Amino acid sequence: MEYVFKANGISKSYGKFTALSDVNMEIPKGAIYGFVGKNGAGKTTLIRVMTGLQRPTSGSYELMGTKFTDMNISKARRRMGAVVESPAIYLDMSARDNLVQQCLMLGLPDYKCVDEILEIVGLTDTGKKKARNFSLGMRQRLGIGVALCGSPDFVVLDEPINGLDPQGIIEVRELIIKLNRERGITFLISSHILDELAKVATNYGFIDNGHIVRQMTAKELGDECRKSIRMKVSDVKLLAKVMEEKRIDYKIIDSNTADVFADLTFSEMAKDFEKVGCKIINMQEHDESLEAFYLSLLGGNDNVQKSVC
Amino acid sequence: MFRNLYADTRSILLSRAFRIALWAIVIYQGFYLIFMKCLYAFIVGTALDADDISFVFTGIAAFIVTAATLFITDREFSNGCIRNKLISGVRRSDVFLSSVCGGMLQGAIYTIFAFLISAIFTMLFTAGFIDYSVPEVADYWLVTTMTSMAIGAFSTALVLMLGGNKLCYVIGLLLAFVMKVWDSFILDKLYPEKGSCTLIGAKLAVYRFVDKYIPYSYLMTRPHYDFGSYIIGCFAMVILSVVIGLIVFNKKELK
Predict the structure, then answer these.
(1) I need a labelling partner for A23 at 20 to 30 A (CA). Which of A103, A219, B26, B67 fits?
(2) Smallest CA–CA distance from A99 into chain B, residue
(3) Region of A152 on the Ramachandran plot (φ > 0 left; ψ -120 to 50 alpha; else beta)
(4) Interchain pair B80, A105: CB under 8 A
């Protein structure tokens, strides 16, 4: 698999405080990578390291296959756009002027992309209005527009929906999905608003106290979060046989326990199990939300906003 | 570096702070002209000399240039535009050098603008120069322009070195103020109105050095050293700002 970003044992310390510790992380090309962690977990620190604003204390990383110490890292960074913390825009300029400014800085031969980007981010009708008079959502979209100049392959968005109203959140979400699908842009979106991430992310990375706790695809997470019945039986192999016959999805936990992904009643189950000689010891409904999954991974509920898988 | 410099110049020219600084120069010179006109008309009773109003900008140049360059560069930091340049693959040294060049450019523009306003006021409202010849006027403005450029470079480097910390305003403006007060004192000691200079030894050397090679002091009075001294002073200030600034900025952990 091709990765746009690959971290190998990155650590970052500020004096005695360790913000990142032995971080290993891969962002597959074409993914929308949801980077989840509570405030102070190390999300923004890793983004700062990734974007070259700060250097790792130890470890290394590759951006588009280029090692960060390589002389060509600047070229790799030109294929990257980012909105770190707040959108990087000149408040005294219009949306168009801001995009032209970025094109100039990137040394693009012309400004053909400006109109296209204005349309993508929905700011074509802002005319000469200065960015200082934009709403928060418009500024955020302009920040994303600036990040899109030069047709980047990889865009990093740090807390992109913080402070946005519901309409702004929908706009940014739709924009991300559109860019990912139509242009194949890989996104890294850091957030602790799980509900929103769940609507766009194809991959997840969970960070806590500077450690990557787990990385998984949205499908894997979906499986973890699916509504299931956790069954304790005398022999899990017999359970597997029944489930395969009935074409019901299941997941073996241990020699006696399995999660069955179906909405079945005890009486329905009992008949089938009796036929094969499998004894049900215990069964209970198991419904893990993304929030619950997150909490079980990170062991806390600070700063996590509600979410449903 | 040059495309970045072009982009930086564009952002400076389009910024509101830049226009406000230009307006501040016009208003200050305008009010000073009105004040001096009234003074000459009602108290002195003679026509206004150009000598009295032409170089009024030099009195505030250090403050105007420092405040404007600090503000514009600091805004680039707080808006995330410096951060964005680095993320977009612009090298740190290029970001630093183009910003410092932008600061120097601002210093030059403010001074040239002040000169143009002053020239218009001189032609329209004064009886001409009494104590200055045309080359002397040109020299004075040239030294002021070079000094403003050096101060612009220093102020910009200061913001970049401090990573957009608001402390840069305190340091930059306090330095401009302290140098103004100290330079007045030094001028009094070196060129007393009555009698001759009584300073000797290290004190004399230090005072003379400040008067001759520290650009802030060039704004205190008309040029009285050879032109080379002024070039050395301004050039040294720019070089020191660039060298120290580059070392610090290259190692700076940005947020």
Answers:
(1) A219
(2) B7
(3) beta
(4) no
Phi, then psi, of B242 in degrees rounded to 5 = -70, -45
Neighbours of B133 (CB within 10 A): 9
Give the tens place of pLDDT for each residue, B61-71.
999 999 999 99
Cα(A168)–Cα(A180) distance, integer angstroms: 18
What does the alpha-carbon distance between residue A163 and residue B61 come to, in Å, rounded to a whole number?
41
Q: Are the C-beta atoms of B14 and B107 separated by less than 8 Å?
A: no
DSSP lists the bridge partners of residue A203 as A33, A217
Q: Select the residue from A44, A71, A75, A92 to test the B interface by mutation, using most B Cβ atoms within 10 A.
A: A92
A2-6, A162-166, B89-93: segment of lowest average pLDDT? A162-166
Determine, for residues A52 and B87 on separate chains, whether the beta-carbon distance falls below 8 Å: yes
User: Is B255 within 8 Å of A53 when comparing Cβ atoms?
Assistant: yes
| CA atoms of B230 and B214, how far apart (whole Å) | 9
Beta bridge partners, A282, equal A232
Find tokens 């403006």 and name the residue.
B173
As given in the structure block, the two tokens for residue B224 are 């009285």
Nearest to A25 by CA among A4, A56, A54, A45: A4
Distance CA A51, CA B88 (A): 9
Contact A106 B91 (CB under 8 A): no
Cβ burial of B130 (10 Å; 0-12, 13-18, 19+) is exposed
Question: Which helix (H) or strand (E) segment is A207 a member of?
Answer: strand A203-208
Q: Please tell me the pTM assigned to this model.
A: 0.81
Chain B environment of A51 (Cβ under 8 Å) = 83, 86-87
Residues B143/B218, Cβ–Cβ less than 8 Å? yes
Q: How far is CA A278 from CA A269, A272, A275, in A?
A: 10, 9, 8
Do residue A90 and residue B11 have CB atoms under 8 angstroms apart? Answer: yes
Residue A77 at interface with chain B, using a CB cutoff of 8 Å: yes
3-state secondary structure of B247: helix
DSSP H/E element including A60: strand A58-63
